[in-house]
Amino acid sequence: MFLEPQTRGFQNHCVPWRRCQGEEEVCDAVNMWEETMPQTSVVFSSILGPSCSGQGQPSMGERGGGASGSGDLIFQDGRLISGSLEALMEHLVPTVDYYPDRTYIFTFLLSSRVFIPPHDLLARVGQICLEQRQQLEAVSEKAKLKSFSAKIVQLLKEWTEAFPYDFQDEKAMVELKAITHRVTQCDEENGTVKKAIAQMTQSLLLSLAARSQLQELREKLRSPAMDKGPILKAKPPAAQKDILGVCCDPLVLAQQLTHIELERVSSIHPEDLMQIVSHMDSRDKHRCRGDLTKTYSLEAYDNWFNCLSMLVATEVCRVVKKKHRTRMLEFFIDVARECFNIGNFNSMMAIISGMNLSPVARLKKTWSKVKTAKFDVLEHHMDPSSNFCNYRTALQGATQRSQMANSSREKIVIPVFNLFVKDIYFLHKIHTNHLPNGHINFKKFWEISRQIHEFMTWTQVECPFEKDKKIQSYLLTAPIYSEEALFIASFESEGPENHMEKDSWKTLRTTLLNRA
């Protein structure tokens, strides 16, 4: 027996990201989404284009050289759109007269892991640096050598700050030490470069230590207890606490949900999201990469969505009296509306999904007493037709509000995570990594990087609401019913109405009695 959403006008299309990765489902999904591929947000168009490199690029279609003049990069309207991996790597490395734009550094470091492990990329960067250093030493250009060394340190600093987890690999740390050792030899007089390297290394080690401790802590935390309920009587004692006994203000609960969302989403890093691309490439090539296991943050955030949906269903189904169930449904509708007003679309979608699970949606007598006008508005916003057009319009409005915000409350944007992941996933599946000439399709990775950059900007917003430990403790630790317990509670509240429900109820009772 599975928890399927009922057809109450809204259908839950937000399956968790890991469930859309089956080979057959991928083919069907790509065909379904190809014509409705979400358009990339233009929020960062002023940052990422058209002059992405910031270096006065060649005109449309003209070949342009990398930093070392490899002549294997293609620009269009001043924007880098393709190149060989080697040329793109050379374009990353500074020279005496050139330093790559920060947006290019971020985009290439993010996307390069699809083609080459970070430690191998670092090794190649080290080789290019060594070649340039030897050229400068050959002509005794000490001043230029110092300038070049400072730029290399700056590049490494940006790398370690943007993607510190790349250096958790021992191989990467070995390469980093090798490069910095060569660079410090050019700065023996005043030690300026050496000081910068020491500060960079210290910051990197602190970041790695903090992230390691956070991961250990999260691994110790368990998901909310799954309450399977009594064998045949799933109803709780009348005195058992429910969400309304902890918080009866929809706005306050929406604010606490926003707290939890921002705390959990802040643990997601750009390279975690890029693994959606790397994961599918490794599956397509029938091989596995060592970094595929580092998806804990994605899975944990996805599990939070599912737990919140199940908690909503549990809170409704466990109520004995129809009048109180009606009140519970109306309360969650108000909470979802407050989440929408805040900009917390992920919690709003989880709540709606919970109310559309079969055990809740089938409670027709209860729903007949609910004032559903507000719920209908929420479902309209989450209507999956036209690739969730209504939701995307609302998200764009929240994004614009965030950009012009005068207060921290107006800066909050928490997108529906499952939809965001699907956007990245299908953008990757629809557009190839390589062009017919063998070049990397860098135009595709500009778009993926733009969306990930925008998402990361949203995750960095500090929650302006006061934290209520009591409410958050309940939301995170309250027992949630299993699928079977939800159906038991639902059927006990309102008996089966048709042959299919009667058969399901009979089968469920028999299964549970035999299990006892």
UniProtKB/TrEMBL annotation:
SUPFAM superfamilies (alphabetical): Ras GEF (SSF48366)
InterPro entries: Ras-like_GEF, Ras-like_Gua-exchang_fac_N, Ras_GEF_dom_sf, RASGEF_cat_dom, RASGEF_cat_dom_sf
The keyword rRNA-binding is assigned to this record: no
Keyword field contains Repressor: no
Every Ras-GEF domain range: 249-496
SMART domains, per the entry: RasGEF, RasGEFN
A Pfam family of this chain: RasGEF
Name listed for the protein in its UniProt record: RasGEF domain family member 1A
Gene designation per UniProt: RASGEF1A
